[in-house]
Amino acid sequence: METSPYALPRPCAMRDLSPVIHWAQQHVRTPAYHWNRRIYDFELLFVKHGEILVWIGGEPHAARTGALLVLPPWIPHVVEVRSEPNAELLGVHFDFFDETPAGHSIIVDELQINPQAFSAVPYVQDKPLLPGYLFPNVSGRIVSLLEGIVQEWNERRSGYDTACKAMLLHLIALLVRHGNESMRQPQPKYEERLLSLADEIRRHCSRNWSCAEMAKYLLVHEDYMSRQFKALMGVGPNKFVQSVRHQEAKRLLRETDHTVEWISGAVGYEDFHYFSRIFKRWEGMSALQFRKLSRMI
C-alpha cells in the first residue's frame, strides 16, 4: 500500500491497533454520481450489489458485487458507478490508532490541508498491514461485521463505540488472513474464467452449484478447480456459494414480504429446515429475527 508525505507508516504489532469509526453508512449511488477526492482517514468500501470502478493514485480497480476496497488517506481516488440503475454500497471511515482530532472533517479541503490530521498507515514487520487496495471477494463473516458496524454506529446505543471497535478489530484480522491466503495466485489463464464463474454464481445463486458443475465451467478436474478457486477468492467454492446465498437471503428478508420458506427456495435451498439452520449459523439469529431487526433500523 502506497504511503505519502503526510500519511506516514507506523511500525506496530496487531495488539497496538485501536481502530475508531468516524462514519458508517449504507448508500445507493447511480452512474451520475461519483467521488473525486482525498480523505484524511481510511475507508472500507464494500459493493453489496452492482459494479464500480475506483481509481486510486491513477491506478484503476474494478470492483463487482462482493468486492471490498480499502481507500487510503492522502492518495487521491475517484469512484465511478458502472452498473445500472445503481450500485448499493457499504462505507466505513476509520483510523487504526484513534488519533484523528475530534470533530475534524474526513474529506480533505484542498484549499486548507491539515497535515497533522492524516491517519498513520500501520506496518507490521516492515510491511503494510493491508498490502493491497482491492479484495475481489470477501467472506460472509466480513460482510456481517460490516453490516453490524453500520447498524451499531447509526443506532448509537450504549456502548456502541466499544462494539464497533471490537467488530472492526475482528474484521481487520480476517482481512489480514484473507490477504495472506490470497498470495497463492492461481494459474493466470484461469483467473478470468474464475471471476466469470463467481459472477455467474452471484447472478444465479439458486442453481445447483456442485463442485462438478463448477469444474465443468472451467473444463478442469474438481480438486484442481477447488484449489484455484480458493487461491483467487480466499474461500472454497462451496463456502462462496453459501455466502452468496446468505447475502441474497438477507436482501430478500429486508426488502420483500415473501415468506422465509419461499426465500429459502429462491436462493437455492430445497430443504427449508436446512436453510434455517445454515442462516442461523451464519447470522447468529433466525431468519425471522433478522427480518424483524432489519425493519427496526
UniProtKB/TrEMBL annotation:
The keyword Transcription regulation applies. Residues 195-293 form the HTH araC/xylS-type domain. It comes from the Bacteria. Transmembrane segments: none annotated. GO terms for molecular function: DNA-binding transcription factor activity; sequence-specific DNA binding. SMART domains: HTH_ARAC. Keywords: DNA-binding, Transcription, Transcription regulation. Gene3D superfamilies: Homeodomain-like, Jelly Rolls. This is AraC family transcriptional regulator. It comes from Paenibacillus lycopersici.
